[in-house]
Each structure stands twice: as structure tokens, then as C-alpha cells.
Fold:
Amino acid sequence: MRPIYCPLCEQDQTRRVEQKTRHGLTVTTVLCHGCGLVYHNPVIEDQDRLALGLSPRQLHTNEPINPRHQRRVQRRTAYQLDFLKPWVRPGQQGLEVGAGLGVLSSTLQQYGVQMLGVEPDPQQAEYARQQYDLSIITGRFEEVELSGHKFDLILGSHVIEHFPAPLNFLIRARSLARPEARLFLETPNLLVPKVGPRRVFSIPHNFYFTPQTLTWLLLKAGWQVEKTRIFRRDSFMVMARAAQPQTPALDPRHAALVWQAIYRHRCLYYLKFLFVLRKIPAWQRGWMYHFQEY
Ligand SMILES: [Zn+2]
Structure:
């Protein structure tokens, strides 16, 4: 574990959101006063997770690769494809960071995109190769050799929250981007979490974004957000185009808004029976995954 500065503000002006011990690891979650970014400080690195003797998969879902899990990934992929389609062209070079089981990459390959995947979990990487005949490099995105590659489409579905240094992830993605490239990200929305208050802050996730904080971080790394789709609950998606890095105009009022959202969730999650509702497919389709776009 390593103490860090806020990657947006580059300072350490924070208030504590939560501190708890899980699997023998004490995790402190903080909110940055300057921008509203929420993260673990000290940040959790791969070696800390490995020291627990649990694989990333075990820490995250502890779910075997089975038909039920696959159906869930396919459902998510269908939502993503609906958002992504306007930017997908045959003949593009695509990179998926954290390719997982390879469902999204294989779908894009069917649309004629030449996909390359990077996946740190060997079991999932092997599955994606066997099942979909995908090119997958096993390893951490920060470390894999990709020199000589340039991409039109870079995708990260529920990965940015895992990195100990998400700004570096975005900067590296930018360095691999062709001039007209697009970056697609999906990540949980801290303003409207799907899971209960006790599970919002976890060992696998280091960073907890809102659409605003992610937009600022993207701008800093040289990505201009083009479109955002925010679901009523759970997550949000962004599409960003390669641009020049800029210093974002941070608004400290955002921190108050984030603090309120965390507090509201703690109070209302059980009162609103969200723990029941979020399991009902009809409610998910009819309410949870309705979205707003910007
Ligand atoms: Zn900050």
C-alpha cells in the first residue's frame, strides 16, 4: 500500500469517508476536498491483494465462470454495444484493457474490428482465447509491451476503478491512440451505487468516480468527453476522443455533492428496499437501466 496525492488536484486535502478491515487489510477511503474524487489512501496495489492469498476474481465476485455469470456479462455487453455502435467501423484496430471473458471484444470482432485484449487474470484470458479465438496478452496493462501498436478504439469496461494510478492508465491509453481515436469507459457511479453501503468501498476498487470527476481526469490525460450515458442506478459510460491534455477547471462544490450522495445512500438503501428491487429483472430493465445522456 502506498500513500498518494489526489491525481486530479495533486494535493492531499481530504476527509475520511470510511475505514474498515477486510481480510486483515485496513482500508481507508477518503474524499478530496478540492474535486470530490473518492479513493483509498493509501492506495491498494496488486502485491497487497496477492499477499491476501486471494486472486483478483476471488476478491471481486468470487464467482466461477459459469453460464449465469456469462449471461450477466452478455447483458452488460448488450447495453455497451447499444452505446458504442455509432463509433464502430469495420477495419478499426481495437484494444480492450481488462478483456475479462472476452465477450465485448468478440462482439466487436463480429463487427469487423480487429481486437487485441490485455487481461491480468490468466484463467479469464485463457477462456477468451479458447472460446472466442481472441488475441489476448496476459498481464497488467501498465507492464505489457505494446510498442508499435496504435488503436482507433480503446475500451475499458469496469477497469479504471481498479488501477492504483488511473491517470497513468489514461495517459498510456492516450499514447496508444491514433489521432481520431475514441476511448470507451464504463465504471460504477458513486452518486447512485447499485450495491449496499457496506459493499460500496471494496478492496478490488481503488477509485470511486462520478461522471464529473472522470470527465476531469480524462481531460487531464488528453481525452475530451464526447458523450456520457448515466444509468439511474449502477454505472455510467463515457466516450471520449483523443485531444490535447488540459488542466481541468475543478469545482470544489462537487465534493459536497459527492459527500451528500454517499450519506444519502447510507440512509436510504435499506429504507427504499433497493436490496430487493435490484435483483428483480423487470425493475432493472424498467427503472435501473433507464439513462440520461449528455
Ligand atoms: Zn482532488
In short: The chain has ten helices and twelve strands. The CA atoms of residues 102 and 128 lie 5 Å apart.
